[in-house]
Amino acid sequence: MKIFVCGYGNPFRTDDGAGHHLAPLLAAFLESCGEDVELRLEHQLLPEMAEEFAAFDLLVFADARVPGTAPGEGFLLEEIDPDPVLEGLNIHSVGPEWVLALSVQIGGKVPPALLLSVEGESFDFGETPTPGCELRIGKAAGAFEKWFNEKYPRSRLTE
Fold first, then answer.
1. Whole-structure pTM over 0.85, yes or no?
2. CA-to-CA distance for 22 and 120, rounded, in angstroms?
3. Side-chain-side CA neighbours of residue 33 (13 Å)
4. Starting at the edge strand that comes first in sequence, how are the strands of the sheet with 75-80 ordered?
5. Boundaries of every domain in the chain
6. DSSP 3-state of 44
7. CATH class in words for 2-155
8. Cα–Cα distance between 56 and 11 in angstroms, integer?
């Protein structure tokens, strides 16, 4: 499988950079399974990505969430679909669903997509996540591994 993994957020705003810490963990796991992975770390999702999606079999997005929005262990793993509703007043606030919808509008293939978002607690200046967010990043990575192994059991290398 060819898999696009994108961590996004501001890596200079502590927990807002959760996607930048989580995405490389996901990519390393997928590569250890023998998958072809393209890893991207971005400040925000870009409309230009929409035309690239057709080249992939799976899209994985990693981001931070505001406090109190992720039930359970402080992260949310969800399969997502295209949604043309813009989440805010400008392109800076778009979510992956909007970029998927843009891909549909330009006639591109939209592969299955997943959003893995980790609850943050501080969005102040700093380059490392808070200890609590770091713990949730690890738990989210473990949940992704379980999800992937269940969803794509044959894609793992058996050699």
1. yes
2. 13
3. 21
4. 36-42, 2-8, 58-65, 113-119, 75-80
5. 2-155
6. coil
7. alpha beta
8. 26
